[in-house]
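We append the chain.
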Amino acid sequence: MMPEPQENGDFPWWLVLLGTLIAYFLYRVIADDLYRQVLGTLGRGISVTVMVTLIGFASACVIGLLLATASLSRFLILRQIARFYIEIIRGIPIIVLLLYVAFVFAPALVAAWNWCMESVGLNPVRTRDFPLLWRAILALCIAYSAFIAEVFRAGLQAVDKGQIEAAEALGLNGWQRFRHIVFPQAFRMILPPLGNDFVAMVKDSSLVSVLGVTDITQLGKVTAAGNFRYFETYNVVALIYLMMTVTLSLVLRRLEQRLRNRPG
């Protein structure tokens, strides 16, 4: 089945070329024992990558939505706290934030937890009991929540104020206005940038390998260090990420088109 032409009339030759490239490497994986062995090893890291991405992104969306609503609040202190958080987090490179959360924030969090537990007579926990996997997820959640907050804020502000005033005139309370009027319209506008952030998190999840988390990238490094076949190993690593990100991009694009064509 040939890909459909894009809205501007251009045939997506890039997709044909990309599909050819992926098909070539898939053939190499099937035909070459070394490629097949590498794929079998790296396949164990796919579930970790998916887990890190899904949990991190879902948590970041929840925090981002709270930050966006706080930044649009009528209370000055909430707006300033949200803006402080967003600007600080956006100004720190993700890998630096990852290391900071893993080796500074997580131990401090454990110490605070132990202080609370000791006050009620419960046994403390050790820092090592906070797995590096969950430290990495927490770091990605914090990092992306600031960017997603700006996406939500822009979408919420783009909703026509006249419709909100009409909803107020109909007697809808704040939650009802948000649920039935504001968010459904804002969601259509924020879906493309939100989808881009999701795809970006799939790629940035590879940064958790610096903590030794056994995702695709970490297993790729270990495999290449063991067999010294860097070309074949990192071809498979790149192929896995490419298939994940391209598939997600196409699915999100189709969803965006359906929402755009839906009446109302």
Q: What stands out?
A: Residues 169 and 249 are 40 Å apart (CA to CA). The mean pLDDT is 87. The two ends are 32 Å apart (CA to CA). The chain has one domain: 35-261.
